[in-house]
Amino acid sequence: MTQHEHTAARPVIRIRDLTMAYGDVDVLHGVDLDIHRGEVFALLGPNGAGKTTTVEILEGFRQRSSGEVTVLGADPERGDDAWRGRIGLVLQSWRDHPRWRVAELLAHFTTYYPNPRDPDELLALVGLTEQAGQQVNRLSGGQRRRLDVALGIVGRPELLFLDEPTTGFDPEARREFHLLVERLARDEGVTVLLTTHDLVEAERLADRIAMLVGGRIRACGTPSELARGAAAQAEVRWTADDGTSRRERTEDPSQLVWELHRAADGPIADLEVRRPTLEDTYLHMVHRESDDTDEAVDRKAQAA
Ligand SMILES: Nc1ncnc2c1ncn2[C@@H]1O[C@H](COP(=O)(O)OP(=O)(O)OP(=O)(O)O)[C@@H](O)[C@H]1O
Fold it and tell me: What Gene3D superfamilies is this protein classified in (predicted)?
């Protein structure tokens, strides 16, 4: 989608200066976001950053403290059944209906929507055709998650919320799931908002990523924009004539390499130029902004 279309079309999700406090604990400190039709958008952040809180506010499950929120043209706090029917949710897991069979459960869910998908097509779409007759509580973790996805899209939602969707998936299941999300966005124009801690997943799937750290959006853009953003300096490594390893950070690595080359008699030993990655940017944000979070403590514990 071009920038022009972005600005011309009304965003599917529009958030302005959203704040949220639980009691006297401030969790969101003024979040602004626009998410557009057909975008796959990842809200990426460490534990406790406020991802689930944000998404629950957007889904209409949680009352915000202040700010403006519009989802599919309505304030989620006042969303009616018709509005709710346009939204698909894949929550952490549906714990009910353990004894239902897969196909029965899907067929049952079709009755909630005006224009549902065909249950057989849906089973094929999420790769559960062979499990159609199986009881829900006999599914593997990954199969269970695929069923969650099927339940989330049975009503042909325009907007799909995926809360940490691939937790517990094996690599094959994860890959198939990514293809499914891409297909939904590309072929059906579904807007997808996913929350994840998984950088690789965000980079692989999302058109744009917002990094939420400590209740604030620290960066937002395409994966490559973010990688270029905060950690703008490249790192140049080489081995000096005296045999010592050297490293230098610079905004102009070609200049540095040129200077090294001029100063050296022959080739520069072990020369390496490393461009910042999305992971560098993310870790930079997390370290800088929330060094006292659980994750930082975990990291320190792991390092110790
Ligand atoms: N119902 C609640 N009452 C009080 N505090 C809450 C409640 N829900 C969440 N919090 C706190 O709000 C902060 C943000 O939580 P939230 O679940 O939104 O983070 P998250 O980014 O989704 O984290 P995770 O990746 O661990 O799921 C945390 O400090 C959490 O302890």
Answer: P-loop containing nucleotide triphosphate hydrolases
